[in-house]
Amino acid sequence: MDLLFICYLFSIGVISDSRIVSVRLETKQKHLNVFSRMKRGSAGLKSKCQTFPSPKQRAKRLKQMACSFAPSRGEDWGNLPHHVVLQIFQHLSLMDRARASSVCRRWNHVFHTPDLWRRFEFELNQPATSYLRSTHPDLIQQIIRKHAQHLQYVSFKVDSCTESAEAACDILSQLVNCTIKTLGLISTARPSFMDVPQAHFVSALTVVFVNSKSLSSIKIDDTPVDDPSLKVLVANNSDTLKLLKMSSCPHVSPAGILCVADQCHGLRELALNYHLLSDELLLALSTEKHVNLEHLRIDVVSENPSQTHFHSIKRSSWGALVRHSPKVNIVMYFFLYEDEFEPFFREETAVTHLYFGRAVSKEMLGRIGLNCPRLVELVVCANGLEPLDEELIRIAERCKSLTAIGLGECEVTCSGFVEFVKMCGGRLTQLSIMEEALIPDSTYNMEQIHSEVSKHLGRIWFPDMMPTW
């Protein structure tokens, strides 16, 4: 028990490594002495084993031990190097930082070091509706008053309550003396920012856009940002903006996002909804004065089944983008119903990553095999009851860059699946398929397909018992 308590003192920093070593040596010597007395049949040992200290005696003994192992002058934790304490503080929550700053003057000095506040996340949640811990309002005001000019990488994490999103807007509107480089607005659950009055949100966001002057990364998904606020962003940060994520922003029009593409020539990553995508936008991202785009994410979502009209993008527009940015990753997430896929993949499309969150038809997969030669990754969560052998083999033939595929509630014959793997060969770095999706046939059963697929992949492979994507 004594040694366990000493180890506890070590874990909370009361004693040092050298003190632990000496205690272990003393404990080992005690055990040797006890063993010697046991061999001699010592009566003293017998009597000692038959008595136990009372709770008061045990508490007194533990208190004496704690005092005896208090750090000496050479082990003053207040004298730790500045950079060590700073590194520790960076891993603490705001409340723990505040508590630690009251330990001594040196730690309080670290608490107010500008480097500590360059990166910060405000957590704004309502205790009655969220399990997440919220940042204390008084501490928030202290940060804004003393460290607003030091903030560079800032994010706001809010729950679904409107009050939390409004609190985030109030803080944004106070950041007038800052040079923020990265801004992220994160909703852990909808609707949050979408329930805030649009004028309030836009006004607060504009304060940051106007005063920062050096924004390089902005994540404002699921917010009521609009075209005029994007124009303010462009007017003040066009030379520095490199990443913009704004999926599910219903108040932004294609003209608004086109303004960003026309002026922000350093843009490398862009995420948006399909209704904002246009031939004009792709051509604007393909001009000579624009840097090479690295990542384009497009969310294709149907809010009203069978009532949403989806336009088509010309093959020439995709081609212009790829010629200008040959290594661009074009990622498309589909959350549509089967009858809404009609406009897609009728012509060659430069997409590299495809994810289908709902059922997709055999015809649609056939089009992908014909018109998506740059495809790298394909995930199909569900399909009908007809085997997809022909579609997979066509994809293997035409999509020479395919390296990852995931199949969920689909059906593929074991022979068709083996042929698909054989055609792709070792380039398949990720291969996930539900065991229930494989249909045994006259050539392969479930026991044989494991070894056959492993042979063509060049590594051990098993079908999945549950989805892994």
TrEMBL record:
Gene3D superfamilies linked to this entry: 1.20.1280.50, Ribonuclease Inhibitor
Highest taxon of source: Eukaryota
One Pfam family here: F-box-like
Subcellular location: Cytoplasm; Nucleus
Residue ranges annotated for the F-box domain, each copy included: 74-120
GO cellular component terms attached to this protein's record: mitochondrion; nucleus
GO biological process, alphabetically ordered: regulation of circadian rhythm; rhythmic process
TM spans (from-to): none
Keyword Cytoplasm: yes
Keywords from the UniProt entry: Biological rhythms, Cytoplasm, Leucine-rich repeat, Nucleus, Repeat, Ubl conjugation pathway
InterPro entries in the cross-refs: F-box-like_dom_sf, F-box_dom, LRR_dom_sf
Biochemical pathway: Protein modification; protein ubiquitination
Protein name per its UniProtKB record: F-box domain-containing protein
Species name: Periophthalmus magnuspinnatus
